[in-house]
Amino acid sequence: MFIVLEGIDGAGCGTQRKALEKLKKLDGKPIFTLKYPHYKDAIGRAIHNFLHERLDLSVEAQFLLYAFQMVSEKEKIANLRKKGILVCDRYFTSTLCYQGVKGFPLPKALDFAKIFQIEIPDLVIFLDVKPEIALKRKGKEDGKKDLDRHEKDLKLMQKVDSMYQKLIENQIFAPWAKVNGERPIKGVTKELVSTLRK
């Protein structure tokens, strides 16, 4: 099974990924986790530099950089989803939203996914959090010295949230479900586990 956790910055995707990691297994099936974007390789470092405003990129270049990590790791994703439950902290669906609101056309993005045979999740779970609450959370994160260009832009967050709602309403790219991410962490984790069991 391949599950993706999605949400705007501050929705709690990373927190919930770590909570599910601690379970290690669910109903006897091992849980594996991945996170996108990651900053381990040259592409990831370029993304990090872009987010921290040390590099400017066109929306097309942004889309390709983010998507490249998932294209290059699609074999790993395909293998892990066969071995147990793969939980991905953000995925191609983030790129549809963030680069979509900046002007990258959704039909082109979906065509790209078909051409490069990007793995389609069994379910995308959207952690629903109001942008104003998410921004406050990001500002309170332990060890967070400065917010990146996405995290500090409330107007962008509001546009991205609207884009996510559109993808959910129309069930674009994969099946979607919505979870209230504004509740206490343990309550959100409990609902995620219940959703996975279903």
Spell out the key features of this protein.
6-stranded mixed β-sheet, single chain, alpha/beta, Rossmann fold, 198 residues, 53% helix, globular, 9 helices
What fold name stands as the CATH topology?
Answer: Rossmann fold
Straight-line distance between termini:
12 Å
Q: Which ranges are low-confidence, i.e. pLDDT below 50, for 5 or more consecutive residues?
A: none
- What is the strand content? 15-25%
Explain the overall architecture.
The chain is an alpha/beta fold and 198 residues long. It has one domain: P-loop containing nucleotide triphosphate hydrolases (Rossmann fold, 3-Layer(aba) Sandwich), CATH 3.40.50.300. The protein has nine helices and six strands. A six-stranded mixed sheet has the order 2-3-4-1-5-6, with helices on both faces. Helix 1 (13-23) packs across helix 9 (185-197), helix 2 (42-51) runs antiparallel to helix 3 and helix 3 (59-72) runs antiparallel to helix 5 (92-101). The radius of gyration is 16 Å and the shape is globular.
